[in-house]
Amino acid sequence: MVDQRVEKLAKLCVHYSVAVKPKENVIIRGSVAASPFISQIYKECLLCDAYPTVMPDLHLDSLFYKYAKDHQLRFVSPFDRFMYENMDVRIGIFCERNPKRLSNVDPSMVRAFSASRSELMDIFHAREAEGKLRWTGYPYPITDQAQEAAMSLADYEDFVYNSCMINKENPVEEWKKVHQKQQRICEFLNGVADLRVVGEDTDLTLNVKGRKWVNASGQKNMPDGELFTGPVENSVEGSVRFTFPGLYMGREVENISLKLKSGRIVEASATKGESLLAELIKIDGADRIGEFAIGTNYGISQFTKNMLFDEKMGGTIHMALGNGYAETGSRNKSAIHWDILKDMKKDGEIYADGKLFYKNGRFLS
């Protein structure tokens, strides 16, 4: 018998986050470990009179990096290109078995493969900006991720479903309330030109004049709860130290410190994974900040090593190296978008045009 929480989550995904319409081509991609959830999403798409296609993820990437030659790392499948050009909706299921499986992969191979995907990412973001493509990412709890989060499977399931507000009688209405609350803050920030971020080993300024703040309330990701924008590309100045590990393809880069000048990273260090960090910022556009965001979901109270949850954590900010979102007005293009998280609950401050509006992980009004 299917867990009723899985059914509710599938309904939230199909009817709220991406609002599937009749005769739309829907790609559903996820691990076979998420089969109960994928089946429910597939059913809901059929009930919408859409055309769902399931693409199972067998996690063959470890084999790929072990045996792929250089030309294979750089090859872009015409079938992938066709999918990116023709899908109306993409639903991705985050459900990774052995999240550390790529820990020993040569960082230069990761960089080469990531760079090869830039064409596909350009197609994806262009079609999204034109309103021709909608997407969302949803979690499905399994033991591997519960272990990463240092929880039992039962506790992790409760954490996942509660963070998506599936424990509420009407999750859709709850997310609409989140949207309304966050919209007021976005409207304030849309009138701001300069931000200054102060915290542990951090003093960073960025210009956001003319850029749009996006109210993330359950459409693109679930769970959600963040406000984000794309800073003016050459405006970011100063230093920042990220207090949580940066996670990239199962690898952890700890204690990342960056110094930026005229929007570009001029110094980068880490106490663990520094070689991967160095390779990633060599990718075109990855030496700039493509996204600046504030997490607002205080129901997510601990770091789980899963950025789908962690970047939404109330009392944190995150920045993405690489590609910015066109909807914010960002012009930074890159094959990667790497979110890195910083705790702001201790001595963290954000100033808007010189006025303090966020302190110790909370908005002041």
Number of E-type strands? 19
Number of helical stretches of at least 4 residues: 12
Alpha-carbon Rg, integer: 20 Å
Poorly predicted regions are none
The main β sheet shows up as: 8 strands, antiparallel
Biggest β-sheet: strands ordered side by side in the sheet: 13-12-9-6-5-17-18-19
Helix content: 25-40%
In terms of structural class, how would the helical and strand content be classed?
Answer: alpha+beta
The averaged pLDDT comes out at 94
Instruction: Quote the distance from N terminus to C terminus.
Output: 46 Å
Integer count of domains: 2
In one word, what is the shape?
Answer: globular
Portion in beta strands: 25-35%
Write structural notes for this entry.
The protein has 365 residues and is α+β, with helices and mostly antiparallel strands. It folds into two domains: 4-163, Thermophilic metalloprotease-like; 175-363, no CATH class. Helices cover 32% and strands 27% of the residues. It is built from twelve helices and 19 strands. It has helices at residues 4-17, 35-47, 61-67, 70-73, 78-86, 107-116, 118-129, 143-148, 153-163, 171-189, 274-280, 307-310; strands at 25-31, 51-57, 89-94, 134-139, 194-199, 202-207, 214-216, 226-229, 237-241, 246-248, 251-253, 257-261, 264-269, 289-295, 316-322, 337-343, 349-352, 355-359, 362-363. It is globular, with a radius of gyration of 20 Å. The termini are far apart.
